[in-house]
């Protein structure tokens, strides 16, 4: 623990076992839940825990006889679940509708009756400090996990006053809500973008069915000695073009292929899973000599139009069946060139690309905003959960006002977010003291 935090007044260092209900110690669940039994007892597995929640449908159900042998690990609403085997460190809170359900041996149940302490501990378990402690105690080879005794010994700093626990947990929960709503907005915008691409890029007015090979050309230009190693790129489905790891670059890069701005490159053995990208770089870059590189004839086809087209169902279905090879399918330029699509005029292409590019930029800004919120929360956790920012123990502050969500107020997504809260500790204390109220739960 941080020495400054250890010496902070108003906090005490405790083990996780010290804050749980004494009649419901931390425990794991059913070792062998058996096959699914209709109308049986729901059993929560690690895969059912995600993003702080617990799935309520599609759960395995065990027999009442097996459940009865593990009645100690039965759940009530509000219990904290911590995955302890396989994927270690995942957290969720049991919803009221799953009261009476059970867990497997891969999950630990943490029951804390006091709502203020429970909410605080749930946030603390997400912190870097607690997650590092968890990882440090992971053992095993084939199946990794943390023992229950080590879970019980996890250390955290707990504010002595419950109103301080409540304020901190609600502030961090407000941040969680902001992150969740932003991610929901991102998901909705991604669905909308997909629909727009399908609608705008296929069967448009005055479009002409065109074979790709008639509006593109393969490029085989080699590097020789013109471009340095820092310009060597790999192509991935998730990230597009990104710098290749140094250890995977050949000693001699003279045969590496040149990719001009706006050109496309792909690994012929991975095109069927979507590993293709257009170069957004302003200068020439390099890719492996095994890659296929091609360019658009911009008098007929805009690179941006094709870049959006590759996300459509028609493109995906074509390349799932194209290519040759038994174990690893290889899709070379001739196979790629056989793809046919509806090609509108250049003016129509420009209008479509402008609209779709704007949607992509908005998505990128929202993702930056969501990431900034996560960084900000980590900064708040570091300050508040370690006592580096002290709260006035005499006041019982009311919950913080909700943070503005993406699209609300005058601030644009991504603006005004720093890596950690900019509010100074003295300002926090002053504001909390002004908003103080009595709390009947305060010890």
Give a quick set of tags describing it.
12 helices, 3 domains, 443 residues, alpha+beta, disordered C terminus, Adenine-n6-DNA-methyltransferase TaqI, Chain A, domain 2, 4-stranded antiparallel sheet
Please give a structural write-up:
This protein has 12 helices and 21 strands. The protein has 443 residues and is an alpha+beta fold. The protein folds into 3 domains: 3-160, Adenine-n6-DNA-methyltransferase TaqI, Chain A, domain 2 (Alpha-Beta Complex); 161-195 and 364-443, no CATH class; 208-343, Alpha-Beta Complex (Adenine-n6-DNA-methyltransferase TaqI, Chain A, domain 2), CATH 3.90.220.20. It is elongated.
Secondary-structure class: alpha+beta
CATH domain class name of the largest domain = Alpha Beta
User: Main sheet?
Assistant: 4 strands, antiparallel
Number of strands: 21
Number of helices: 12
Beta-strand percent range? 15-25%
Oligomerization state of this entry? single chain
Helix content range: 25-40%
CATH architecture of the largest domain: Alpha-Beta Complex
The structural domain count equals 3
CATH topology of the largest domain, which one?
Adenine-n6-DNA-methyltransferase TaqI, Chain A, domain 2
Q: So, the CATH homologous superfamily of the largest domain?
A: DNA methylase specificity domains
Low-confidence runs = 1-8, 406-425, 427-443
Cα distance, first to last residue? 25 Å
What is the element layout, followed by pairings?
Blueprint: H1 3-6, E1 11-15, H2 16-19, E2 27-28, E3 41-44, E4 49-50, E5 53-54, E6 60-62, H3 64-69, E7 80-83, E8 91-93, E9 102-103, E10 107-110, H4 115-126, H5 128-136, H6 148-152, E11 155-159, H7 162-201, E12 208-211, E13 216-219, E14 233-236, E15 240-243, E16 257-259, E17 264-266, E18 276-278, E19 285-287, E20 292-296, H8 303-309, H9 313-321, H10 333-337, E21 340-343, H11 346-384, H12 425-434
Parallel strand pairs: 3-9
Antiparallel strand pairs: 1-11, 2-10, 3-6, 4-5, 7-8, 7-10, 12-21, 13-20, 14-15, 16-19, 17-18, 17-20
Helix pairs in contact: 4-7, 7-11
């Amino acid at each position: 623990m941080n020495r400054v935090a250890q010496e902070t007044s108003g906090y005490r260092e405790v083990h996780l076992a010290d804050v749980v209900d004494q009649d419901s110690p931390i425990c794991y669940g059913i070792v062998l839940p058996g096959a699914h039994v209709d109308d049986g007892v729901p059993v929560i597995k690690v895969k059912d825990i995600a993003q702080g929640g617990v799935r309520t449908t599609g759960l395995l159900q065990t027999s009442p006889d097996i459940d009865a042998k593990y009645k100690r690990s039965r759940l009530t609403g509000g219990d904290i679940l911590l995955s302890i085997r396989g994927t270690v460190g995942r957290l969720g809170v049991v919803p009221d509708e799953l009261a009476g359900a059970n867990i497997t041996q891969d999950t630990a149940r943490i029951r804390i009756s006091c709502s203020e302490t429970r909410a605080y501990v749930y946030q603390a378990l997400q912190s870097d400090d607690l997650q590092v402690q968890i990882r440090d105690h992971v053992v095993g080879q084939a199946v990794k996990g943390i023992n229950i005794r080590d879970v019980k010994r996890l250390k955290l700093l707990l504010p002595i006053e419950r109103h301080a626990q409540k304020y901190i947990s609600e502030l961090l929960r407000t941040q969680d809500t902001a992150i969740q709503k932003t991610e929901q907005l991102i998901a909705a915008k991604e669905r909308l973008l997909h629909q727009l691409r399908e609608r705008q890029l296929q069967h448009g007015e005055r479009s002409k069915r065109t074979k790709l090979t008639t509006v593109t050309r393969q490029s085989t230009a080699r590097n020789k000695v013109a471009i340095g190693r820092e310009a060597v790129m790999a192509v991935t489905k998730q990230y597009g073009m990104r710098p290749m790891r140094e250890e995977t670059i050949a000693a001699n890069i003279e045969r590496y292929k040149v990719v001009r701005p706006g050109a496309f490159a792909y690994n012929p053995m991975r095109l069927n899973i979507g590993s293709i990208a257009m170069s957004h770089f302003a200068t020439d870059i390099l890719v492996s000599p095994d890659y296929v590189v091609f360019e658009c004839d911009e008098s007929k086809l805009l690179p941006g139009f094709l870049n959006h087209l590759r996300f459509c169902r028609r493109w995906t279905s074509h390349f799932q069946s194209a290519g040759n090879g038994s174990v690893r399918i290889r899709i070379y330029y001739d196979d790629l060139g056989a793809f046919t699509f509806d090609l509108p005029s250049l003016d129509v292409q420009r209008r479509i690309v402008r609209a779709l590019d704007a949607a992509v930029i908005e998505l990128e800004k929202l993702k930056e905003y969501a990431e900034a919120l996560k960084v900000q929360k980590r900064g708040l956790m570091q300050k508040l959960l370690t006592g580096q920012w002290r709260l006035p123990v005499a006041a019982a502050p009311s919950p913080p006002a909700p943070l503005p969500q993406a699209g609300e107020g005058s601030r644009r997504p991504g603006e005004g977010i720093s890596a950690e809260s900019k509010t100074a500790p003295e300002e926090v204390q002053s504001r909390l003291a002004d908003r103080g109220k009595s709390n009947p739960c305060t010890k």
